[in-house]
Design a protein that fits this description.
Strand content: under 5%
Number of strands: 0
Structural class: mainly alpha
Number of helices: 11
Helix content: over 70%
Number of domains: 1
Order of helices and strands: HHHHHHHHHHH
Largest sheet: none
Distance between the termini: 26 Å
Shape: globular
Amino acid sequence: MEVKIYQKENKLSLFKLLKESLMDIYNSRFLARQMAERDIKAQYRQSYFGILWAFITPLTTALVWIILNITGTIKLTDAGMPYPLFAFTGTLMWSIITESINSPMQSTNGARGILTKINFPKEALIISGIYKLLFNTSIKLLLLVFFLFYFKVVLTWYLLLIPLVIFGAVLFGTTIGLFITPIGLLYGDVNKLIKFGLQFLMYVTPVVYVIPKDGIMKTIMELNPISPIILTVRDLILGVEFNSITYLVIVLLCCLPLLFLGLIIYRISIPIIVERLSA
């Protein structure tokens, strides 16, 4: 068994912390997969509707806006595709991003019982959460395929790039979640603030309606880093020019160093938080 000696150091090596974090992610990949399988089985075993719950969130959100649009309660401009498909792709990507943001905190918070009793790489909790995200997302993609066939969308090779954009969405959300998790574990109010903030953010993101042609809302929605993720998926479905691809690449490239920084913060803070929770 490996023996670790903790002693005071004058210097804090961020590179060393990142290297150790990445090594623990690699070494704990089997543990993360086992934890993900356990949680997925427990989640759907204790539910009457089982795996159908993976469809409900994006589908019901889209259905509300589809009904409002059909009844004329809300007048929406031309979306460039059948509105039900437009609304579902938006709510699908939005649910993936929001679940990715909440995943690190939920996975860590759900393991409170073992964190204070068992010493294991805490990064396994992050990877476990990503495994669960990818599993739920793969189920939702089946519903997207149904929408594509139902509305007779011309299938092109661009559709094969959608999983890459989805992985980018998971990367983006997980990066944000890593910064939120340490504070969220200490203060329960953070969860409420995140839910409120995401509800507001949805209305300045082209989830269920197109970006206005002018005005301050147009500027806000175009600067929103979530917008290019959703817009690129729609462009891939239509097989049209990718107007948002440059901004998407910039967002994802910025996520990489922030993801590494988030891992370092997570590695430093979680042992301190565990000690506080067990006190």
